[in-house]
Design a protein that fits this description.
- By secondary structure, the chain is mainly β.
- It has one domain: PK beta-barrel domain-like (M1 Pyruvate Kinase, Domain 3, Beta Barrel), CATH 2.40.33.
- Helices cover about 10% and strands about 40% of the residues.
- It is built from 3 helices and 21 strands.
- Strand 12, helix 2 and strand 13 form a beta-alpha-beta unit.
- The longest helix is centred in the middle third of the chain and has 11 residues.
- The protein is globular, with a radius of gyration of 18 Å.
- The two termini are about 35 Å apart.
- This is MOSC domain-containing protein.
């Protein structure tokens, strides 16, 4: 009998592109992990700002509170940001999505502008039902919060180890910014999965993930700095170049209907329900 695949770790990112948090248990909602990427930094025109161009976002540490959010960063006093009134909607842009979110106010904007050295504001997506996923790889009623494109990103420990071995140095999993990490698989097994179940939640694998420069950034949360290097992009270009991109991890969507309050936890078994031939290229590559 083969080794049982299980959930190795779970991650949530309260503010898009900022520091994430590792959790033992999460609630899964139709648009992803509860409270994952419901806040986002934007420029004065409402367009998303990410760590791709503003690396220092990675050292901003958001913590969820009963009333909203607490933001901390090295060298700056903490600031508490209440959940804004959803009546105060402003237009925002994230990739090809055009929707509205609630502006978090001048206090949060001033704090982030000082810490980041750029004129920015903070917004909160009060209702993720306003943002559909990409229709090319999903169903008409699929929704997503402020993640790049899909509700959750899944990676596997074996695939991350394969990259580190090929690179000759450890590339830590947090660089890939997953929500769900699975252990007990072969490297790249996730490329062939199409549906899998954890507890009461069934997930669809809808698209592989083409990786960007953010995987090459290593934040020093004590110093408040971000170092950049060639890995894992250099190694992925040798191992995982398909078309114009390099690929690591898969995007997944919870199946409908989703049980209310459905949770998954570290250590839960992962049951693959549908898969294609191993060695298949990631969907979309």
């Amino acid at each position: 009998m083969g080794v049982q695949s299980t959930v190795a770790s779970l991650w949530r990112y309260p503010v898009k592109s900022c520091r994430g948090e590792s959790l033992e248990r999460v609630v899964v909602e139709p648009w992803g992990v509860a409270q994952d990427r419901r806040w986002m930094v934007v420029d004065p025109a409402g367009t998303m700002v990410t760590a791709r161009e503003l690396n220092r976002l990675l050292v901003v540490h958001p913590t969820l509170t009963d009333d909203g959010l607490r933001l901390t960063a090295p060298g700056a006093p903490a600031v508490d940001v209440p959940v804004p009134d959803p009546a105060g909607q402003v237009p925002i842009a994230i990739w090809s999505s055009r929707l509205t979110a609630a502006d978090a106010g001048d206090g949060a904007a001033a704090w982030l502008t000082e810490v980041l050295g750029r004129d920015v504001r903070l917004v909160h997506l009060d209702d993720p039902r306003r943002r559909p996923t990409s229709p090319t790889y999903s169903e008409p009623d699929d929704r997503v919060s402020l993640a790049d494109g899909y509700p959750l990103l899944l990676t596997t420990a074996a695939s991350a180890e394969a990259v580190s071995v090929a690179a000759g140095a450890l590339v830590p999993m947090h660089r890939y910014r997953p929500n769900l990490v699975v252990e007990g698989t072969q490297a790249w097994a996730e490329d062939s999965w199409r549906r899998f179940r954890i507890g009461d939640v069934t997930f669809r694998v809808v698209k592989g993930c083409a990786r960007c420069v953010m995987t090459t950034m290593e934040p020093d949360h004590d110093a408040g700095s971000v170092a950049r290097g060639p890995e894992p992009t250099r190694t992925l270009a040798r191992l995982r170049r398909f078309g114009k991109g390099v690929w690591f991890g898969v995007n997944v969507i919870p199946d409908h209907p989703l049980p209310a309050g459905a949770t998954i936890a570290v250590g839960d078994p992962v049951e693959v329900l549908e898969a294609v031939e191993p060695g298949t290229r990631p969907i979309g590559s």
